[in-house]
Specification:
single chain, alpha/beta, Immunoglobulin-like, TIM Barrel, 4 domains, 8-stranded parallel β-barrel, 6-stranded antiparallel β-sheet, 18 helices, 27% helix, 21% strand, elongated
Length: 691
């Protein structure tokens, strides 16, 4: 009798939804049995009458290589000698009605290039990883206190193969050095890939997945994708994948109605279908389905060394009525629209990842005000590391789209996000979603002349880098790609060489990223209010705002000033935290950035003139459409400003009297004393007298 490789413990854990390495048991794995090399196959199909393995090796004949059921687990398995890596196969699933369905392997690690869709046997254990230092360091990091500037990439259109070979898709291995070189040249910390899990339709960008355990064959093999991740790690670059546990497509060879009935999805269309998307919703009530998804997340993080997952469409999981009309959804047990099963799944998912993969991250694309998305499950939260701040993105773009004269009436759009900036751990995204579907590119969202457009875009990126929260920018937008993004063509890289304004914008983005990484004040306290302080957020009339970012140890302080108007303001004054010298470390109006070049960077001293509710203030020239950043060592200044501690026996020194004061009349001395007691500076009093 054939010995099953799946044990009773395996089936028990899988039935409970807690077999976190089930991908090592189910699927297709090169193996050896009785001295013979071959491939071990296993699949979960609980409603099937029978299952067999079909492929080139048996003429795709159903029933020839019949799999054996394992007790009452719903799992079928079979060892086929003589097969090895690269063999093509599918599962021929006989339904209870006698129909034969030819299905790709749900746990398969490689697929054919579309439009072909058979699974391909792969040996994932053969790759020799070289990123030990990265992986060891990852375990020790608190990602919330680390810099994170994410470059969002669609590999199929980042740079195409101009020869047209392989549908224009370049290989993972070929892309690795070029991508790493550009990411490091710019200064991003992470790459986020969209569309890596296998999917049938290019135009879905990978958000309708058919093979959750297989990197897409568009760019090479599973081992080739390992090489890409490994290469990026060795170049000091983190890797994040988009992950889609919310829904899956109806393709006949995929998960849909896998064994003739609803297996991975709900049978009730009110629970199991997205009317707008035409897809099926995962059944989060079934332990084996939850196990499929949780193990899949761990598969990418552990087996492929990926550093984090950005979880797509979380809002659609949380709400039973998401995208549905009355009669198209079923209320929960309490009569509400919250999906308790999905919430339990997400808490389980994030808890296990936190335990098993320290230093990794889970990022929620959640577009509603659902509470506690990034709080730990034990505190009632969902347990995500970060959440995309969609509200910030929408508000800022609406503000920037407005004519500068009208911005004073919508000033709240650019300040409101600061009121909730620390309610969750946020990522600030300018993602692919904002440059598709007739939304236009980032540069063409901006109003005015081309000079105005570039000035406004510099403001947008400057605000993203200065605002509390991690950063994400979609490819092409860092050199002001003019055309709306399409997966069918490469980015317009020629703009960097042929159009000076685009090269200048690219220079500016590099400078922003360098500043961001060089100053802990800009990332250490992204999730803590102690790292932020307003200077003036209420100057709607002039389209201005200013604030301060500070490091944890208070050794660094950066003051940011934004002028969202086309008007220059010479000798403009804003509040400062303390006295001392402030050095301008960012001036978006420099000619090298595409600005006017008429306002050189400045070094200014704080005056003891109260302003914006601060005791001190600085005065500097403000260019039109500009971002200015000044740095100052706040801790040292406070130390110098603090009174020196005296010994008990040390006499208090008498106040020194200036030579000029000795010759004042009694009346003049009285006036001077009144000024000192008022707390106002002489300059302020003189201004009042002139008025």
């Amino acid at each position: 009798m054939e010995q099953h490789r799946i044990s009773e413990l395996d089936t028990y854990l899988f039935g409970r939804g807690t077999h976190y390495t089930i991908y090592e048991k189910l699927g297709a794995h090169p193996a050896e049995e009785n001295g013979q090399s071959g491939v071990y196959f296993a699949v979960w199909a609980p409603n099937a009458r029978s299952v067999s393995v079909v492929g080139d090796f048996n003429g795709w004949a159903a029933g020839q290589n019949r799999m054996q059921p394992i007790a009452e687990s719903g799992i079928f398995d079979l060892f086929i000698p003589g097969l090895g890596a690269h063999a093509l196969y599918k599962f021929a699933v006989e339904t209870k009605t006698g129909d034969i369905l030819f299905k790709a392997d749900p746990y398969g690690n490689q697929s054919q290039l579309r439009p072909d869709n058979a699974s391909v046997v792969a040996n994932l254990s053969s790759y020799n990883w070289q990123d030990d230092n990265w992986m060891a360091s990852r375990k020790m990091q608190d990602v919330k206190k680390r810099p994170m500037s994410i470059y969002e990439v669609h590999l199929g259109s980042w740079k195409k193969d101009e020869s047209g070979a392989n549908y224009g898709f370049r290989r993972y291995r070929d892309l690795a050095p070029e991508l790493a070189e550009y990411v490091n040249y710019m200064g991003y910390t992470h790459v986020e890939f969209i569309g890596i899990a296998e999917h049938p339709f290019d135009g879905s960008w990978g958000y309708q997945v058919t093979n959750y355990y297989a990197p897409t064959a568009r760019y090479g093999s599973a081992e080739d994708f390992m090489y890409l991740v490994d290469y990026l790690h060795r170049e000091g670059i983190g890797v994040i994948l988009d992950w889609v546990p919310a829904h899956f497509p109806r393709d006949a060879y995929g998960l849909a109605r896998f064994d003739g009935v609803a297996e991975y999805e709900h049978a009730d269309p009110r629970l199991g279908e997205h009317p707008d998307w035409g897809t099926y919703i995962f059944n989060y009530q079934r332990p084996q389905v939850k196990n499929f998804l949780i193990a899949n997340a761990l598969f990418w993080l552990e087996k492929f060394h990926v550093d984090g997952l950005r979880v797509d469409a979380v809002a659609s999981m949380l709400y039973l009525d998401y995208g549905k009309k009355d009669g198209q959804w079923v209320p929960n047990a309490d009569g509400g629209n919250i999906n308790y099963d999905a919430i339990e799944f997400l808490k389980h998912l994030n808890s296990i990842i936190g335990q098993r993969v320290p230093g990794s991250m889970m990022i929620a694309e959640e577009s509603t005000a659902f509470p506690l998305v990034t709080r730990p499950p034990e505190d009632g939260g969902l347990g995500f590391t970060f959440k995309w701040n969609m509200g910030w993105m929408h508000d800022v773009l609406e503000y920037l789209k407005a004519d500068p004269f009208m911005r004073q009436f919508v000033h709240n759009n650019v300040t409101f996000s600061f009121t909730y900036a620390f309610s969750e751990n946020y990522v600030l995204p300018f993602s692919h979603d904002e440059v598709v579907h007739m939304k236009g590119s980032m540069i063409n969202k901006m109003p005015g002349s081309m000079d105005d457009k570039f000035g406004n875009l510099r403001l947008a990126y400057g605000l993203m880098m200065a605002h509390p929260g991690k950063k994400l920018l979609f490819m092409g937008q860092d050199f002001a790609q003019q055309r709306e993004w399409s997966e069918e063509r490469s980015l317009d890289w020629y703009l960097l060489d042929q159009e000076p304004k685009h090269r200048a914008l690219n220079n500016y983005m590099r400078a922003l990223l360098a500043m961001y990484r060089n100053y802990p004040a800009l990332y250490e306290n992204d999730c803590e209010p102690c790292g932020f302080e307003w200077i003036n957020g209420a100057d709607a009339t002039h389209n201005m705002l200013s604030f301060c970012r500070m490091s944890t140890d208070k050794k660094e302080c950066l003051i940011f000033h934004f002028n969202f108007s086309p008007v220059a303001y010479p000798k403009h004054r804003i509040g400062a935290l303390c006295k001392g010298t402030y050095h301008q470390v960012l001036n978006s109006d420099e000619a090298v950035f595409g600005g006017t070049g008429n306002f050189p960077s400045q070094v200014v001293k704080a005056d003891p003139i109260p302003w914006d509710g601060k005791e001190y203030s600085i005065e500097f020239d403000v260019p039109p459409f500009s971002v200015s950043a000044f740095t100052f060592n706040y801790a040292d200044a406070q130390k110098k400003a603090a009174p020196r501690k005296r010994k008990a026996e040390e006499p208090v020194p008498a106040k020194k009297t200036s030579k000029a004061a000795k010759h004042l009349t009694d009346e003049q001395k009285a006036i001077l004393k009144a000024i000192e007691e008022s707390g106002k500076s002489v300059e302020e009093v003189l201004k009042l007298l002139k008025q």
